[in-house]
Amino acid sequence: MEQTELVFIPFPVIGHLASALEIAKLITKRDPRFSITIFIMKFPFGSTDGMDTDSDSIRFVTLPPVEVSSETTPSGHFFSEFLKVHIPLVRDAVHELTRSNSVRLSGFVIDMFCTHMIDVADEFGVPSYLFFPSGAAVLGFLLHVQFLHDYEGLDINEFKDSDADLDVPTFVNSIPGKVFPAGMFDKESGGAEMLLYHTRRFREVKGILVNTFIELESHAIQSLSGSTVPEVYPVGPILNTRMGSGGGQQDASAIMNWLDDQPPSSVVFLCFGSMGSFGADQIKEIAHALEHSGHRFLWSLRQPPPKGKMIPSDHENIEEVLPEGFLHRTARIGKVIGWAPQIAVLAHSAVGGFVSHCGWNSLLESMWYGVPVATWPIYAEQQINAFQMVKDLGLAVEIKIDYNKDRDYVVSAHEIENGLRNLMNINSEVRKKRKENEKISRKVMIDGGSSHFSLGHFIQDMMDSKVMKGKDAL
Fold first, then answer.
1. Peptide bond preceding 237: is omega within 30 degrees of 0, i.e. cis?
2. Rounded Cα gap, residues 395 and 39, in angstroms
3. Using DSSP, how many helices (H) and how many strands (E) does the chain show?
4. Which candidate, 135, 133, 107, 140, places its Cα nearest to that of 121?
5. Would the pTM of this model clear 0.85, i.e. be above it?
6. How confident is the model at residue 73 (pLDDT cuts 50, 70, 90)?
7. Closest C-alpha to 441, from 365, 385, 387, 374
8. Which of 74, 164, 292, 402 could form a disulfide with 178 if both were Cys (CB 3.0 to 4.6 A apart)?
9. Which residues are catalytic?
């Protein structure tokens, strides 16, 4: 049987890599005709180590390291140059891959930040598909803003730190400028230019795989259908089954043993993603709120990375950054940790609430396990995710919606405590909706579910495209 080969090119940060691997597993498990090669690019900062799979149909190819200028701070210009210098490396790797007569290349699946690689797919005469690891509403937001910018002269900077709002078809409510992704206002280092460039190129692909499901984002998905946007395939929730990086089995065992001793649905879990950290003033406000609330808590507390690095690390001495005596006073109800095995924690019956940075992967994980969320976004598109969860979908309570790590703002203990109280209210509408959503998010992935059908539709479209291309070649 001739193998149908797909090339995956994910953006080399763990949230994007892990999601790409999971969608690759779903495709190869669904249809044994497919084999998938995932190209791994190596940033000079951070780590992409530890990617592995037990599937014989998936393999990783790590591309040679590259040098991109002498910039020490990641920026839009850096990322753009980083991807451009990988184009010949990807081209050579695909040539090597297709030298075997038993392999038939059928397409590229590229990350939302790797659209430069559409050009390589075009050279090989195969279609490109986009993998969008966030939600359909955010996809529609980016496309709408890009259209307004390019064709109606919208000045995005008018919305910076502003209460002015924008009507976007994929959102039910108008979106205030203060929750726009910060990269949209980043002219100096090229973040805004990079976002617009990639979003323009979204329109060139044959289809877009989105990590969402129809029942969650019905309004957004309906708004995208029948438009000038390529066909959207809602194939989620795709969960990151990796334990994560930065910790170990010993850390995980101690955390899980502590949770085992807590009553059901009693613990607030605070975790802010692989790049989330706070300064000393904010840490003290969180500590005061936790202590005063009286709720049991598990707090993943990490220190900001040094200049030029992206990934936070664990504190060497947690006591130094916490209020004096805090650990002693809360010893019976709380545990402060560094790295956290997030999936395992959310799956534990003791966890009753999740204070989250609102990364899309984390939001989907919380839905899968039916854990209510309190929003505390930090960077990227997390503010607009938080807005959608609270305002459009009613699936989260608010601590903050517009918090941004680059703003000089400290969330008060009073605000945090109020959010915790709403989060842990056992009779809240959010908690009821979460439980309903938990059942739905699981049903959509099995035979007969909407995402199962959508993935099958994508596979069939790709196979049809391959057949048509073969006929054209004759």
1. yes
2. 36
3. 16, 17
4. 107
5. yes
6. low
7. 365
8. 402
9. 16, 111
